[in-house]
Amino acid sequence: MISEPELEGGWGADRPAGQERPGEAPPEEGGRAAVRRPRGPLVWALAGAVLASAGWASVPELRDRYASTPRIAYRHAENLCRETGLDTLVKATAPVMTRHPSHRKGPAVDWAHCEYFTEWEKGGTSYQMQVLVELHKKADPAVEFGQGPGLVPEALSAAAASEVAEVPGLGKRAVMVEAPAHISGPRLKVLDGGAVFTLSVTWLGDVDKGGGTPGPDEDAVKAAMIEDMRALIGGLRK
Q1: 152, 141, 116, 149: which is closest to 224 by C-alpha?
Q2: Which of 11, 105, 151, 169 is most deeply buried (CB count within 10 A of its CB)?
């Protein structure tokens, strides 16, 4: 219950020492009145400026962190065989008999793979075609592009490859890698941001030996690989 002095603004003589009457100025200190000023807008403005400057100081670090993250403009395909039938390449080689898809999603790389086998006849030539799509989410694949073993390690490593030719008009960079003499078939690799596309073709058979079936037109095979790769890249783009 509020007492009468409090209602009327009175202040008893028995108040505790050091307490002033409401509205009463504090005692003088050193000849000047000690005035307690409320924190005005200027104080908060200065505090905000300090915080803002600290935030801008961290911007280069954030920018560098995001700059090192590869750009991925393509979607992951759980069944890559359904995304492309390699129609142009099949016309240049032989009909596909079987297809084997596989894929995996990981913290650093998502990959999808499809392996194609064509029909084979005795005395003829059979083909194996492979497509691999890698989506690198952390490390930039441009650093080691074209240096890895690829789909056929013993044939397509950087040391074994006999020739590498740049292919214009595909992704950021594309190369056609010629296989060494003991392995038949080229490999096409395309780099675009964090995505790496690989298409390889190998063929087996008694090619030009003892009256066997002549080998494929390699220039036609390479042209078909480029066309099918262009179609695959366009189909997977987000």
Answers
A1: 116
A2: 151
**∠ at Cα 74 (70, 77), nearest 5°?**
125
Helix-strand-coil percent breakdown of the chain, rounded to 5?
30, 25, 45
| Model confidence pLDDT, tens digit, residues 34-73 | 445 555 555 555 555 555 554 544 444 444 444 568 899 9
Could you tell me the CA-to-CA distances from 95 to 16, 42, 77, 192, 199 in Å, in that order? 103, 79, 23, 30, 17
- Cα angle 196, 198, 202 (rounded to 5 degrees) comes to 170
* Tokens encoding 36: 């307690």
What pTM did the predictor assign?
0.67
Q: Strand runs (DSSP E) across 39-194, as ranges?
A: 96-105, 109-118, 125-136, 163-166, 173-178, 187-192
Could you give the 3-state DSSP secondary structure of residue 80? helix
Provide the token pair at 212: 């066997």
